[in-house]
């Protein structure tokens, strides 16, 4: 299927043998289909891969509360840091592969994939220090010593997962840029189906060591199966094997990767601060439990915007690469509209069931009551997730990671977080005050990104992109 929208300035035709003009409704329908063609499978991929850790953590709960706390802490803090960095750096591939695909420079996709592998594997080496010294790190932030020691041991066992992140995320972006997402969907589903019984067997037989072994194996299988798909000939236009060209201009690629990592990590870690700061409030146990339940719900619902992020970054980068400025802009607003409808539906469902859904997570009446009181804040956050992530995906597709990183620093950490700390801790508004600061930061960032999208000269973006692709291809252009 053609992933690009042609020029929409076609004049009215009078010849009965010629095609009728493309109407706005037809354009809207075609763009909607292309967005869902990418977003639908991407949502499933996010859910399946997110479920790998979720299944392991749930099964570990049958061993004991200490093991459950250790795995949860490792997954949230230690693995969360590495996951954010790896995923963020791989996001550079969404920009470059998507634009190269749109421009028809297919061979460059494979070169970009190899560059990303080199940079992420190199980054993974120093990141292992976080896992090695996890016990010390967790103790410094005030965690229980027994939990910190067990989480530190589990973190060392999970080091192979870090290197699988470095291989897996670039392959996902490489395939995503070509809209080859259904293959990843089936691979992710197959690995999850294999992981559930294997994880249960390993955990029941070997405990925490079995949990680490089965989860590492799941990520190794993801990498092997995705590479097998790429090398099988299904990507023959974009993958022609390993090349020395992957070592050229690594510094330029590294800069975009770091910008992408900073942009995404600032967003990924922002909501994590809510749970950390909740531990400083009065009645900390109830506050942390309530915040954790709300963030759990937000985490699952956020799988939907993740699919739209993938779709809009692919659509924008493809259209800019093909020189279709109007189509890129049109795709942004169509995707935002789709996301608005879906997220508003989820927000309404949460609000209507605010006195009932907490029962799914806890039997503590004080926690249930507090979660119900926080439902309005959760609904606002879900609503903002219909706009803000899509605009971030647009920024990735256009290659604006550096600019958005500065926006995130200002909106989140210079305004939102201090405002939340002031309202929650100094004014003693509790978790509601902390969360108000989070909403202020996300809302401000959303407004700034909307202004950037509205004021962007997309034709100028195309000219900059053509120069970047020409410079990147260099002498390789003659070979292709």
UniProtKB/TrEMBL annotation:
It is a multi-pass membrane protein. The chain crosses the membrane at residues 34-52, 72-96, 117-141, 147-169, 181-200, 206-227, 261-281, 293-312, 332-353, 374-391, 403-427, 434-454. It holds the Pfam family MatE. GO terms for molecular function: antiporter activity; xenobiotic transmembrane transporter activity. Keywords: Membrane, Transmembrane, Transmembrane helix. It is found in: Membrane. One of its GO terms (cellular component) is membrane. Belongs to the multi antimicrobial extrusion (MATE) (TC 2.A.66.1) family. This is Protein DETOXIFICATION.
């Amino acid at each position: 299927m053609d992933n690009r929208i042609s020029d929409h300035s076609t004049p009215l035709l009078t010849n009965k043998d010629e095609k009728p003009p493309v109407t706005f409704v037809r354009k809207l329908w075609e763009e909607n289909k292309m967005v869902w063609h990418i977003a639908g499978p991407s949502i499933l991929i996010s859910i399946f891969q997110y479920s790998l850790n979720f299944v392991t953590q749930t099964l570990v709960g049958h061993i004991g509360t200490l093991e459950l706390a250790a795995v949860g802490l490792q997954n949230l803090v230690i693995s969360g840091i590495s996951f954010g960095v790896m995923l963020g750096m791989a996001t550079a591939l969404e920009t470059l592969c998507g634009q190269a695909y749109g421009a028809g420079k297919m061979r460059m996709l494979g070169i970009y994939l190899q560059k990303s592998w080199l940079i992420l594997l190199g980054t993974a080496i120093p990141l292992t220090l976080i896992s090695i010294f996890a016990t010390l790190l967790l103790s410094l932030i005030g965690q229980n010593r027994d939990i910190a020691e067990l989480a530190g041991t589990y973190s060392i066992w999970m080091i192979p997962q870090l290197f699988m992140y470095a291989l897996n995320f670039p392959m996902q972006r490489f395939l995503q840029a070509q809209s080859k997402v259904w293959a990843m969907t089936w691979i992710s589903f197959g690995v999850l189906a294999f992981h559930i019984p294997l994880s249960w067997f390993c955990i029941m037989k070997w405990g925490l060591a079995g949990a680490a072994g089965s989860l590492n194996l799941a990520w190794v299988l993801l990498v092997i199966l995705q590479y097998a798909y790429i090398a099988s000939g299904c990507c023959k236009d974009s993958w022609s094997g390993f090349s020395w060209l992957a070592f050229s201009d690594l510094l330029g690629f590294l800069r975009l990767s770091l910008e992408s990592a900073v942009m995404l990590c600032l967003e990924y870690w922002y909501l994590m601060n809510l749970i950390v700061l909740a531990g400083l409030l009065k009645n900390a146990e109830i506050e942390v439990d309530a915040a954790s339940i709300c963030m759990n719900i937000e985490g699952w619902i956020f799988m939907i915007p993740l699919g739209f992020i993938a779709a809009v970054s692919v659509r924008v980068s493809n259209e800019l690469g093909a020189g279709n400025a109007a189509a890129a802009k049109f795709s942004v607003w169509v995707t935002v509209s789709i996301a608005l409808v879906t997220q508003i539906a989820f927000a309404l469902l949460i609000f209507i069931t605010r006195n009932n859904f907490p029962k799914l997570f806890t039997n503590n009446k004080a926690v249930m009551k507090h979660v119900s009181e926080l439902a309005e804040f959760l609904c606002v956050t879900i609503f903002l997730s219909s706009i803000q992530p899509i605009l971030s995906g647009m920024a990735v597709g256009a290659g604006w990671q550096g600019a958005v990183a500065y926006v995130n620093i200002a909106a989140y950490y210079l305004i939102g977080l201090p405002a939340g700390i002031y309202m929650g801790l100094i004014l003693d508004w509790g978790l509601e005050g902390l969360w108000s600061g989070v909403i202020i930061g996300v809302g401000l960032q959303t407004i700034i990104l909307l202004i950037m999208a509205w004021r962007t000269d997309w034709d100028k973006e195309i000219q900059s992109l053509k120069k970047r692709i020409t410079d990147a291809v260099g002498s390789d252009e003659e070979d292709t």
